Amino acid sequence: MKPEDITTYNDRMRCYAAYALVLGDNKPVPTSGLVGIMTDEFPKFTKNFNRDSLAQALSNTKDIFFRQPQQSWGGAYVLAPRFYSFLAKQIEKEAKPLLAKRLAEKGQKFTMRAAIMCFYERQKARYTKPTLTSVFRQVRKSFSEQTGRE
Fold this sequence. Notes:
The protein has helices at about 5-25, 30-40, 45, 50-60, 80-105, 110-125, 130-145; strands at about 30, 65, 75-80. The chain is mostly helical. It has a 3-stranded antiparallel sheet. A hairpin with an 8-residue loop joins strand 2 and strand 3. The chain is globular. The two termini are about 25 Å apart.
């Protein structure tokens, strides 16, 4: 793999791991649990991810999006609270207009799960933005600009 391919692969793993954590309300999840959630929820894009490569991508010292809690969770990951807040707000902002009519017709309320699955379906079908990766990249860029970190 070329270095740029590794970077892209690691970014994709971080993206899908972030959405897996949002689906779980940002509760600590061990690496193997994240791989399971990612392959169950996003099978088209994550079927080749494994625990070791995901752990390596998430433990990058420059990466501020994930941290290992200092409690007894050991190797569990969560999103940094401020990043989680940024991501949740952007998911809602981007997805509500897309889902409004469909949810109203079914008499359902907006949920993060519905929003994330909407982005996933758009990504699978190669629709225009918003998709899982476009929203993640937008949030990461905005967060980095506001915090001065990458």
